[in-house]
Amino acid sequence: MTTEPTPAVGTLDPRPSTGAAPPTLRGAAPRWLWLPVVLVLIPGLVPIAGLVGRVVGATDDALALARSARTLALVWNTVLLMVVVTASAAAIGVTAAWLTERTDLRGRALWRVLAALPLVIPSYVIGMTFVSASGPGGLIASVTGWQVPSLTGLLGAWAALAVSTYPFVYLTVRATLRRLDPAHEDAARGLGASPSRVFRTVVLPQLRPALAAGSLLVALYTLSDFGAVSLARYDAFTRVIYAQYAGRLDRTPAAVLALILVAIALVIVIAERVSRGRAAYHSRSPQRPPRLTVLGRGQRLAATGFLAVLAIVSLGIPIATLISWVVRSTQAVTIPWGAMAGSLTASSLAALVAAAAALPLAVLVSRHPTRSTAWAERLAYTTFALPHITVGLGMVFIASRYLGGLYQSITLLVLVYASIFFAQALGSVRASLVQVSPSLDQASRSLGVGPWRTFGRITLPLARRGMVAGGLLVFLTAMKELPATLFLRPTGFDTLAVRIWSAADSLLYSRAAVAALLLLAVSAVPMYVLTTRDR
Amino acid sequence: MHRNRRGVAALIRLILTVLVATSCSSGDDGAQSLTVYSGRSEDLVAPLIQQFQDETNIEVSVRYASSTDMAATLREEGANSPADVFFAQDPASLGVVAEAGLFSALPGDLIAGVPTEFSGGSAWVAVSLRSRVLVYDTERLSPADLPATVDDLLDPAWGGGRIGIAPGNASFIAFVSAMILERGEEGTLAFLEGLAANEPQIFSGNSPIVAAVDDGTVEVGLVNHYYLLGLRSDVGETRAENHFFTTAGAESLVMPAGAGVLEASQNKEAALRFIEFLLSNNAQEYFVTETFEYPAVPGLAAPEGVPAIETLAQPGLDLSALAGVLDRATQLISEAGLL
């Protein structure tokens, strides 16, 4: 496990794997370290049991849906969307990463920031701005006079998701490009290969693991996305699961569809794992900076144009649309303080719980790796891969019947958040621990310092940076979380995400825009910290 | 490091403060509180509920979702439900909860003013009335192009995304339930499949459909009468217009939105005050002038711009029978591939 590249799932900027596995501590790990791990993994995994329980006792009527042509059409719609989004996100991400890392384009520092920024904007916000800015009566038509097609259906879902997910590929590929040893490229060039040939035959193969990791994230995100496909009115699994849940008295069909969606997610995770095999490329940190490709005049223009269009589409249009709604609004702008407080409370608590629970597992994984720690880590990533709508739905089934006081409570919402985003915290904490050899702990112990003091004075300070980064990452994603929140929030408890979605769903765009701008403002802080530290 | 630690401590303190503040607001410091499950949308009824809070000092927590969703949720929660009042958008959802025996009987003098044909015995009471209509785009269609009956929409000429529907919306489901009572399951499924064959655009609710007709995204939509009036009060003139069917079928159904008090409620007194409030002159006037619905308590005039309720063609159904076929209705909608 330890030689695998740190899964990009966990970090915005995955660290280089150091090649050799760090030495580990001898002796069994204390058992109690497992307690928080189990506690935080359960709220993510148990709901799936809830879905299974629901389906097992189902009538034939409900199960008939699973075999119907309707379900087949849903699988087709969902897979089609996933393929086109992943392909375009990969193409955009790799191109942007190469242009900003390996060419002599001017203003690369600025382009790097701009290319990563769409990560802060939830896909449903991008989706709603695209839907409303496009079409005959949209902002684009009224400002420029150009007739753009309505971004609804497959076209709309694809556009919104490609734009919101390409940063996953961009960030992982960029990180790899930074640490590739340029010696190979120089050798190829010395043998007379053209820059494009060098890229295709030397660089691209080395990017494969990063590209696969980023693409996996894009595929899983697309599968899980609920808000953007709903606002674009595209019949993907998530939209129909919610429609079946909200529109039918019988909840079993929704559970049947949710289980099929879970199965698709697991197939993707397993397929990626199998195809990755042992084909990871490890490079030592490069000795010198890579030679930048010198762009010709036409190329420079094209490259700048590409990055500018990307920034306009992914940041310019969404933000301009949001601001124009607020400005044009005929009603008085009211700030949803309640929703803001709700978002901040639930997300920060989830961040604290996830970061705290990640520490013991990260210690186990990095210091006492065994078969069971490997499994616990795998479970954490599996929970992360589960579509949130299925977790929310399954948890509602269980909580409304068996959990009494926890049903519709903030506690349950926070635990579910912490569970589904646990892998992000784990990735960060683990990364901070594997950078330091456990011989430090050993030295401390051999000098006669007790295990608790060693933990407090050596391990904890080492892990703190990772815990803060992981916590911020969990905070950032929990702020944007929508479908699980819809199912699990307490009555009267509001979040910005729910506010944005329900307002956009009723076409109350100016109200949605105020909440969306607030969400962006709050997210900007952790995003700034995450991207500027470690420079 | 120390600064870091202090930052974390400050954050924890902030969160605890917020938590305590939010939990206190619903705690019992002598004030009464009320939990309402609302199938009516927030933008329509939130101001009304605020008015109730201001008048009575009763703290109200509202859970907004679709009426069908809330009915299913209430059935599932049973006696564990945290809800005190179910405020629904259609008689079928209310009937389902009534048939499950989850409502507590409303006092006779409380509901005496409401015509019995619109209410569910003593289980729930109608608070406003609405008619199904076809909203259409006046720039692309003239009244002569409009379908005479709802079945005309099955003509292939209406294919290719010209029609907008909201199949998950309780009003649409009530319309389909009424159609089952009128022409049986087979006939209803045939209608739904015919509609599906014309590839209607699927929306999440009525207001998005009306907005879509008004901006030319779809040409006609099956909705309730008042969404267009609401849009007009926001934006002034609209190119969308209501068409009231003159056929006495499910497409002209006049149906109540209503409310009932749950048997499991711990706050029945406050819940009854809420129902009383909904039937008060103030609330009835709110429905007429703010949401443009017909009042459930006779005496107020109809909202401006719609025909008097007595003049509307109606299918002549027993509304309490809708609940019995709601389950089938949602199943048929799903079978036709619309949900």
Give the SSE map.
The complex is a heterodimer of chains A (535) and B (339).
Chain A: H1 34-56, H2 60-67, H3 69-102, H4 108-116, H5 123-133, H6 139-144, H7 153-179, H8 183-190, H9 195-224, H10 227-231, H11 237-247, H12 252-276, H13 297-328, H14 337-367, H15 371-385, H16 388-402, H17 410-420, H18 422-434, H19 439-446, H20 451-480, H21 483-488, H22 496-505, H23 509-532
Chain B: H1 2-25, E1 33-38, H2 42-56, E2 59-64, H3 67-77, E3 85-88, H4 91-99, E4 103-104, H5 108-111, E5 125-137, E6 163-165, H6 170-197, E7 201-202, H7 206-214, E8 220-224, H8 226-235, E9 240-243, E10 254-262, H9 268-278, H10 281-289, E11 294-295, H11 322-335
Parallel strand pairs in B: 1-2, 1-3, 6-7, 6-8
Antiparallel strand pairs in B: 3-10, 4-10, 5-8, 5-9, 5-10, 5-11
Helix pairs in contact in B: 3-4, 4-11, 6-11
The N- to C-terminal Cα distance of chain B equals: 55 Å
Secondary structure tally: strands of chain B: 11
The computed structural class of chain B is alpha/beta
**How many individual β-strands of chain A?**
0
| Multimeric organization | heterodimer
The fraction of residues assigned to DSSP E strands of chain A is: under 5%
- List the uncertain runs of chain A: 1-20
The major beta sheet of chain A can be summarized as: none
Descriptive overview:
The complex is a heterodimer of chains A (535) and B (339). Chain A has 535 residues and is mostly helical. Helices cover 73% and strands 0% of the residues of chain A. Chain A has helices spanning 34-56, 60-67, 69-102, 108-116, 123-133, 139-144, 153-179, 183-190, 195-224, 227-231, 237-247, 252-276, 297-328, 337-367, 371-385, 388-402, 410-420, 422-434, 439-446, 451-480, 483-488, 496-505, 509-532. In chain A, helix 3 packs parallel to helix 7 and helix 14 packs across helix 20. Residues 1-20 of chain A have low confidence and may be disordered. Chain B is of the alpha/beta class and 339 residues long. Helices cover 42% and strands 17% of the residues of chain B. In chain B, strands 1, 2, 3, 4, 5, 6, 7, 8, 9, 10 and 11 form an eleven-stranded mixed sheet that branches. In chain B, helix 4 (91-99) packs across helix 11. The longest helix of chain B is centred in the middle third of the chain and has 28 residues, at 170-197. Chain B is globular and about 60 Å long. Residues 20-29 of chain B have low confidence and may be disordered.
